[in-house]
Design a protein that fits this description.
The protein is mainly alpha-helical. It is built from five helices and no strands. Helix 2 runs antiparallel to helix 3 and helix 3 runs antiparallel to helix 4.
């Protein structure tokens, strides 16, 4: 029970941030490849429709959510107890990052 009272330090937060950036980068490129066949590359057409890119957006967000939920479940079982307090913070940040990743997805 001695490890319950210990909190993770700044070095653990820095390592967590680096792992988060690597995880999000790898996830983005894998999901970008997985959704590459969906959507239209040229949106400026006379009969401009959002439906094709809407499908790509929803599939990307759902797959991103699936990946981060699986990652949270795996990490919450694998990490030592004193580092588990960071997991939900990174999860919430990953939820926000999923929407931010839509910008480079359609550029």
């Amino acid at each position: 029970m001695a490890d319950v009272s210990q909190k993770s330090g700044s070095q653990a937060l820095l390592i967590g941030f680096v792992c988060f950036v690597v995880f999000e980068t790898v996830t983005y490129y894998v999901l970008r490849f997985a959704t590459s066949g969906l959507g239209m590359s040229d949106q400026m057409q006379p009969e401009n429709t959002i439906v094709s890119n809407w499908v790509k957006t929803v599939v990307f967000l759902l797959l991103h959510l699936l990946v981060i939920v699986v990652a949270v479940l795996v990490l919450s079982n694998r990490l030592p107890r004193r580092y588990r307090g960071q997991v939900m913070g990174w999860f919430y940040l990953a939820l926000i990052t999923g929407f931010v990743l839509l910008i480079p997805l359609f550029d």
